[in-house]
Each structure stands twice: as C-alpha cells, then as structure tokens.
Write a structure and sequence with these properties.
With 298 residues, the chain is of the alpha/beta class. Helix content is 38%, strand content 18%. It has 10 helices and 12 strands. The termini are far apart.
Length: 298
C-alpha cells in the first residue's frame, strides 16, 4: 500500500500541519481508501489529492470518529465517489442526523466549528458494515477521546501492520525536535480509565507504524503507544500534586508551565513556528482542562 498524508489546512491561523486525511492506495492502483475525510470545508483538498494520487476513485471511507474535523466531508465522498463509510456504532446516529453534533460543536468550538462547516446527513445506504471492511483492514473500538472512537489496523503481508490511531494515542507532530512532540488529546470530559484501557488494547497488536490524524506518522507504534500511556500517567501525577499543594484547577497557566518544564514530550513546543506554537498552546489548555475535570477537587 502507498500512503499519502493530506494536510487539510483551515482558514485559521496555525491550522496547518494539524488536520489530516490519510489516502491509502494499493500497489496495483485499483483501490483507494480514505482514513478520515476531514471537515467539509476542506473537501476540495481531499478531492484534489484523490485525483492526483488516488486514481480519481475512493472505494471506502474509514472514520476514526465523527467529530467535524474528521468526518465532516464523509457525505461528499459518498456523493462524488460512491464511497461507503465505516464508523463506530455509537457514531452512526450522528452521521445520519448531525444536528445534535453540530449544535454541540458550535457551543464548544465557536468560530472554528463554522470554519469546519456544518455537516450534511449521510444517507443510511452509505454505511459500510464491519464485515465488509476492505481486505487487510480491521477495526478496534477505542473509546476515550470520544465514545465513538475506533482505530483501524492495516495488515500487509511482508510489510507488517500499520495503525491508524485517530486521537487514541494523543497528538503527534512529525518533524519537531529535539524529541517527539506528543500531547494528550483529552479535552473535557476526560475519562482516564477508558482512555488508558484503549491504549492498552492497541499495544499488543504488534503494529510497526502508527499514522496519526493530528499529524504525521512514526515508526515503532508500540513505543509511541507506550509513550502516550506514560504521558497521561505523568500528567496525572503532576496535576494531582499541584492540586494537593493548593494550585487551582482553573490556573491553566501555572499548570502549563509546570508541564512544559517537566514533560520532555513538550520540549519541542518552544521551537515551533509561532502560529503553530500558539495553536498548540490553545489545545494544550483544552487537554489541561480535561485533566482538571478528571482529577481536580470534587
């Protein structure tokens, strides 16, 4: 299989090298799949990549979850290419009737939701049953980031397994130094036990490569999954200790500075390009709020 990571830039400062759709093309060139479609507003970028790298066809869409930045363009893939769509059972109602998802997204994301675009309903006949997944693919339910989150494993003979992790293993930014940049994808409400159980479910699969929805790919999936698990536990210990010492769960800046000082996976943040650094600071804040809700004083 050939892999193409499509950078789905949104018209907002810093929203590049952030959202992606993975185009997977078989070696014979007669099958093309999309893992996540991105938001509706960026569909022209996906369509262009399909025409340039996918032979002008999409045979199936595999959704890690149905949030706007991952699944908003799924109805376009069905309308234009006839691509049937795989999603976790808990996500399917939101695809068929996205009104509640849209309302919640606007309340949570505000202007950003509008930049992603309001999703259209997906026709029921567009759904792809799990038993009809493309050859070599399997789905693993991995709730945590969302109750309707799942990952996909592609098992290729003589090439090993590739994990399409969505946000189950956190956020990775390929190419940043001096250390792999990782942060938890834990906005409120964050359910630590569920999230950790999902990571533990993925580690024994023996995947060679891990492809993230945000953003890029890395070799050594088992190691990267272990890093994601350990980072959540590390953040937990730090925030619990800070709360015990009287730091308010609302003191986002104090918590951020402590994490930045102590977590080596955040070290690359200081060297990022300014717009991406500012974007990441905002989303680190969201993750901190998830930890505050899970571990703060009740």
């Amino acid at each position: 299989m050939k892999f193409e990571n499509i950078d789905l830039q949104v018209n907002k400062r810093g929203f590049r090298r952030f959202i992606s759709s993975w185009l997977v093309r078989d070696e014979d060139g007669d099958r093309t799949y999309l893992v996540d479609t991105g938001p509706g507003s960026t569909w022209p970028l996906v369509r262009d990549a399909v025409e340039r790298h996918g032979g002008g066809r999409v045979d199936a869409v595999l959704l890690t979850h149905v949030h706007l930045d991952h699944a908003g363009a799924a109805p376009f893939a069905f309308r234009e290419y006839g691509a049937h769509v795989s999603a976790a059972p808990k996500g399917i109602p939101h695809l068929l009737d996205p009104s509640a998802l849209w309302k919640g997204s606007v309340e949570t994301l505000g202007e950003t939701a509008c930049l992603y675009g309001e999703p259209e309903p997906l026709p029921r006949e567009a759904l792809l049953a799990d038993e009809d997944l493309p050859a070599g693919f399997s789905a693993i339910e991995t709730p945590g980031h969302a109750s309707h989150h799942r990952c996909f494993v592609l098992d290729e003979v003589n090439r090993g397994k590739t994990l399409f992790a969505g946000e189950a293993a956190g956020i990775f930014l390929e190419g940043e130094e001096p250390f792999p940049y990782l942060r938890p994808a834990t906005p409120p409400r964050f359910f630590p036990e569920v999230t950790l159980e999902s990571i533990e479910r993925l580690i024994p699969l023996g995947c060679r490569r891990i492809c993230y929805s945000h953003f890029g790919a890395a070799e050594g999936a088992k190691e990267m999954l272990s890093f994601a698990r350990d980072q959540i536990l590390f953040w937990r210990d730090i925030v619990v200790d800070m709360f015990r010492k009287g730091v308010s769960p609302d003191d986002d800046e104090a918590i951020f500075r402590e994490l930045l000082e102590r977590d080596p996976f955040l070290a690359a943040w200081r060297k990022m390009e300014p717009d991406i650094r500012d974007r990441e600071r905002e989303f680190i804040g969201n993750s901190i709020r998830g930890f505050a809700g899970a571990y703060g004083p009740k």
